[in-house]
Amino acid sequence: YIGSGTLIAERVVLTAAHNLYDRKTKRRAEEVIFYAGKDGLSAVAAGRSEALEFPTEWASDEASADAHDIG
Fold first, then answer.
1. Alpha-carbon distance 39 to 44, whole Å?
2. Where are the beta strands (DSSP E) in 1-71?
3. CA–CA separation, 10 vs 20, rounded Å?
4. What is the pLDDT at residue 28?
5. Quick count: other Cβ atoms within 10 Å of Cβ 31?
6. Residue 65, class by beta-carbon neighbours within 10 Å (0-12 exposed, 13-18 middle, 19+ buried)?
7. Which pLDDT tens digit goes with each residue over 19-69?
8. Rounded to whole angstroms, how far apart are CA atoms 66 and 5?
9. Are 39 and 48 in contact (CB under 8 A)?
10. Which residues contact 69 (CB under 8 A, 6 or more apart)?
């Protein structure tokens, strides 16, 4: 799966919760690899996730869960 994110601090990437948890399958990502400045096959830098967090409301089946699509 490929998604996008924004580097907001030296070791913090802000992304959408749907990149971290799939509500259809009820599975969360085990690992995320972030590529900074990716252009085709090359990137300026890369890093692996140490922790993945998203609002617990995103994992619910409630209609209002879409409002919590941030991770």
1. 9
2. 5-9, 12-15, 21-22, 27-28, 33-36, 45-48
3. 20
4. 94
5. 8
6. middle
7. 999 988 999 999 999 998 888 889 999 999 999 999 988 888 776 778 878
8. 18
9. no
10. 16, 17, 18, 58
Distance, in Å, from the CA atom of 6 to the CA atom of 14, rounded to the nearest integer, reads: 5
Amino acid at 14: L
What lies within 8 Å, CB to CB, of 55 at 6+ separation is 17, 68, 70
Residue with tokens 């090359």: 42
Q: What is the pLDDT of residue 27?
A: 95
Residue reference for tokens 């601090």: 9
